[in-house]
Amino acid sequence: MNPLTGGRPNRARALLALAILIGVSAAACAASVARPVTDAPWYSIVPPLLAVIAALLTGRMLASLLTAVFAGGWLSAWSATTNPLATVGGGVWKAVRFLWLSVMSPEFSILAPGSFRVTDSQLILLYVVLIMAAITVVLTGGGLQGVADWLSRFARGRRSAQVVTFLAGLAVFIDDYANTMIVGATMRPVTDRHRVSREKLAFLVDATSAPVAGIALISTWIGYEVGLLGDIAGTLQIGRTGYAMFLDALGFRFYCITMIGFVVFNAVSGLDFGAMAAAERRASRQGKVSGDGWVLSPLQASSAEPSPGARIHAATALAPMFVMLGVFIGSMWFSGGGGRFLAADPIAPLRLSAWREVFSTAKSIPLLAWASGSGLVAACLFSLLLARISAPAILRSLWAGLKAATMPVSVLILAWSLKGACDELRTGEFLGAQLGGAIPPWLFPPLVFTVAGATSFSTGTSWGTMAILIPTAVPVAFALDNHVYGPVTVVTIAAILDGAIFGDHCSPISDTTIMSSAASACDHLAHVRTQLPYSLAVAGLALVGGYLPAGLGFGKWVGILGGASCSAAIFAAVWWRGRNR
Fold it and tell me: Which of 41, 218, 271, 392 is the most exposed place for a label (fewest CB within 10 A)?
C-alpha cells in the first residue's frame, strides 16, 4: 500500500529520472506532430509521468502525487493563457480546485447551504475511516488473535503449521495490515515449535495479505478500488458501477489467484526451491528458525497486541465481520432489485444470475459505508461485552484507527485530484489516440501488468500505482476496444490491480513487506531474498498462463487452469530434482 519514506536520491538517479522525463515527453511531442489524430495536448502525459518518476526517485508517494497535481494545474493554466504571471497564479488556483473537487461536489458553496450533497468520494473516505477504526477495536479486543489461536490447534507438524498459517491469513481477509500484524505475531510460536523457518513464515504472511484483501468482496481495499474504477467509468461513460467493474475483473486476477493456489500447494507439498529451500533445510535439520547474524527490524507490531486483561475469543472478530458482510450483502440484494426477483421466484437468492444482476445495478458505495459503520458498532459492543475491555481502551483504539486512516485517505484525495488534472488535460484521450493503432490489443494487458509491477516495485506502493495507472491505462484499453466496454478493458483493469500487488510483494521498501518481516521476527533482507523468486515465478505464471491467453481472447478459466498447470510443473520439477539430488 503506502511506502515508508525513502532515503535521499543520489545525483545519478536524479539525472536518470530527468532524462526519462525529457525523453518520454519529447517522444510524445514528436508523435503528436507526426500523427495529429487528436487536439489533446502532448504535455497532458506530464502529470502522471511526473508522479511515477518522482515516486521512483524519492520513494515518497504523497509528495509525488501532490507535485503532479500542481504540475497539472500549471499546465492547465498555461494552455489557457500565455501570460507567465497568470499561469503561475492560475496554476495554483486550478491545483487547489482539483483537490477541492476530489471531495466536494462542484455546486457546493458556503454561501448556499442547500447546495451541499454527500458525494461518492466522501462516502468512500468515510468507509475507509470506519473500517480502519473497526480493525483497531477488534485488535484491541483480541478477536483476531482468538481466530489465529483457534486455528493453531490444528497444527500437528511442519506442513500443517504452514497450512494453518495460510488459513489464518484467509480468515483475516478484511485488511492486509491486520493480516500481517496478527498472523505473523500469533503464528510465530507455532511455526517455531514445528521448525518452520522465519523466512517461510514471513512469506506465508505476506502472500496471504494483499492478495486476499485485494480480491475480497469487502475489505479496506475494495472501497479504494471501487472509487477509482467508478471515477474512470464516469469519465468514459461506461455505464457500470465501480463495484460491477471490480467483479467483472475478478476472474482475471491471475496473480492473486495463482499466488493463493501457489501458497496452498507449497504448504501442503512441503516443496521449496531457491533461497527458501536452503532456509527450510536449515530450520528442519538444524532447528535454527533464524539465520546467523540477522539484524531484526526495529519496527514492532505492538498495535497487534490485545488490551491487557482482554478475554481472547474468536467471536470478538468473527461477529463484526459477519455483521459487516451480512449488512453489505443484504443491502446490496434489496438495493439492486432483489426484492423484485424474490417476488417472482422464491429461490432467486440461490441463482447466480440474480446475484449478477443485483451486483451490477446496486449502488455499492453508500452500502459499503453502512456496512463498515455496522461492523464498527458490532466491534465495540463485542469488545466491551465479550472481551471485557474498558470503554477508555475502546476509545483509545478508535483514536488509533482514525490516525491510521490518515494515510490511505490522503492517498485517495491526491489520486482523485491527479485524475481531475488528467481529465482537464485529456491525458486518456491523447494516450488512446496515439497508442490505439500502435499496440496490438492482445499485448496491452500483459504490458500493463509488467508496467504496474515495475512501478509498484520501485515505489513500494500498490495503492499509488493503481492511482496513477487506472486513469491513464484504462482509457487506452477502452480505445483499443473501439470505445466500448470490452474484454481488453476488463483484463487491463485486472492487470493494473494485480501488477500493483505483484510489485509490492517484491519491493524491499513496501510497508507490508517490512511489516511482514517485523511481525514474523525475520531479517528483512532475508525475507525479500527468499520471497522474490516465488513472487517472480507466480508473476511469470500469471503473465504466460493468464494475461497472454486472456489478451488473445481466451476465457478466464483458461488462464486460471494455465497458471495452475504451470505451478504444478514447477513443483514437479522441484520434487524430481530433490529425489535425484
Answer: 392
